[in-house]
Amino acid sequence: MKRFSAIAAGRVQRVGFREHVYKETFEKDITGYVKNLDTGKVEIVAEGSEEDLRALANAINIIRYPIAVKSFTIKWQEATGEYTSFEIIRGDIQEEIFERIDYAGTIMHQTLENSELSLKKQDQMLDKQDQMLDKQDRMLDKQDQMLQVGIETKEEIAALRKDTGKYLDDEFKEIKKELTSIKNALARAGIQV
Ligand SMILES: CC(=O)OP(=O)(O)O
Fold first, then answer.
1. What is the C-alpha separation between 14 and 42, in angstroms, rounded?
2. Using only C-alpha atoms, what is the Rg of the chain?
3. Which of 16, 34, 114, 166 has the greatest count of CB atoms below 10 A from its CB?
């Protein structure tokens, strides 16, 4: 089993950093503590398997708003076995309360920023939807126009067929009449066809 004692510096106090460190030890066989120092830095002492400790060090040496670990010095030793659990060491109660109020303010600010961002995204999506609906409307208009052209073409063809049919009928009647008179003339001349 190993032990590390680390000092994190940067924006690491009043930003929920100790809670973050504590959360990263959750369900792991890690003991030790995390503590805010008067210098504004944070001390982390942890004991456990080397694999768990390396994962912990990676998970807490981060820059993720509002936490910003700017420097992280780590010293490795053999474990002592002196701790039974992992704890957040808290300071003066009044100081802790002020820290929590500051942190709550930061989180509220972040939540507001996030919701403004998501409202902006929603607006953009609604704009896009409007544009799509507009395009759909234009396509439906074009479809309607095409259907109208189809109907008109069909009507034209039907009228043309009717006209052509009547013309051919008249022509055939005329031809038949001509043939009958030719046939009669031939019969009168003694020619039977
Ligand atoms: C709110 C709070 O206690 O934060 P931190 O542990 O970062 O000081």
1. 11
2. 46
3. 34
Give whole-number Cα distances, 49 to 18, 31, 62, 76, in Å.
Answer: 21, 10, 21, 12
Question: Is 153 contained in some domain?
Answer: no
Indicate the length of the chain as a whole number.
193
Model pLDDT for residues 45-67, shown as the tens digit of each residue: 999 999 999 999 999 999 999 99
pTM as predicted: 0.64
Write out the residue range of the structural domain in which residue 22 sits. Answer: 2-91
Alpha-carbon distance of 182 to 20, in angstroms, equals: 115
Ligand 1 pocket residue status of 47, Cβ below 6 Å: no
Catalytic annotation present for 18 = yes
Residue 99 pLDDT grade (very low, low, confident, very high; cuts 50, 70, 90): confident
- Tell me the ipTM for this assembly: 0.95
For the chain, what is the domain count?
Answer: 1
Position 136 in a domain = no
Give me ligand 1 centre to Cα 49, in Å: 27
User: Is the CB of 25 inside a 6 Å radius of any atom of ligand 1?
Assistant: no
Beta bridge partners of 8: 42, 72
pLDDT tens digits, one per residue of 148-164: 999 999 999 999 999 99
C-alpha to C-alpha distance for 174 and 165, rounded to whole angstroms? 14
